[in-house]
């Protein structure tokens, strides 16, 4: 495994306002062959373990014993299938420990023998996601000098054309991957929130130039550490406790050894790892079905960054999110975010969690045609279903919320179903119908810039404050027969 330094690549480390988190290049194979086998695997072995594009992961050498880290072997199987157009990785019953994120590749199915007895579990020390892109990559470009040309894979919202450097440097941009036809099915996907230490240190401050994940830093109080993550928009970064020597105090000047960047610590808070169970980032026309997702630290399942036409169906979510997480906007079971469109969330059971059970938002890009249908949500820590942003210029169009049950949203100000939008954008064309909402602080609310939305035929009872209400800016919504 090699750490890749974008500053060295571009030769202008002082001029990129770059936020990124652990971007790795994984060298998994180096030899060509009939089935493009990884080094050390013969054609005979490949032919035996990969029949009809199906790999039994135990035939590859995975243990599934709940002790051995099977991640490298799983990645090897992913590489074999990816190099040959796709196929199925079959996981027999067992507990497969992974210390890093399992890559998602086009046309690959990750299938368990039994959703209750086939478990993919984050190792106790993992800070990474379980499935999806490795520790999320953020490329937010600001204040960079112009050198001409385009930035490869820094995509415009159409996710087809590249930003020119002029555009990227003036407006910022987000990089991603284009992945299609992924299936994750019949698995338990288990995080490690009970094993992660609290009091991960989160420094907040101001720096003219960026720090980056993996960089060594030191403080004027004698502290030394390695950055585990840099978070876009928070003027800060987080440090895992095991990397810390000495002291980091509020008021200290912190210097990056490689970037030369300097930050003055303005605040310090407890935090936890930025770990998700499944992260779809630029993933479309894909499915997660018949899975159990539990014990995430951050969001359990994220549909992000131009991930479109996906289906999240017949899954169960339990005991997700961790109390110490400073980034409270990440406490979701299902998060549909940043320019994600035409996604379907149907027939899932969601129990508990510290924040919203299903959250659809549009910060950074339009969201439309999300369908939330026939889900059962019990005792969420925040809103049961929340569509919209407290501030955004991007619209949300045609959200469909039909046939859901939300019971016991009792967090401060929690709403069973909330449609909310402020800023310049609007939510329009919504249908909220035939839902059952019981024993929440508020039942169903429309707030802010919501228009042409129908709230009809819902059963709402036991709300402590309002069963069905609206403070929407527009009066062309229809609320009746509830």
TrEMBL record:
Q: Which residues form the Rhamnogalacturonase A/B/Epimerase-like pectate lyase domain?
A: 54-239
Alphabetized InterPro entries for the sequence: Beta_helix, PbH1, Pectin_lyas_fold, Pectin_lyase_fold/virulence, RHGA/B-epi-like_pectate_lyase
Q: Mind telling me which SMART domains this protein's record contains?
A: PbH1 (SM00710)
Say which domain of life the source belongs to: Bacteria
Q: Describe the location of the Right handed beta helix domain by residue ranges.
A: 263-413
Signal peptide range in chain numbering? none
- What's the name of the protein? Uncharacterized protein
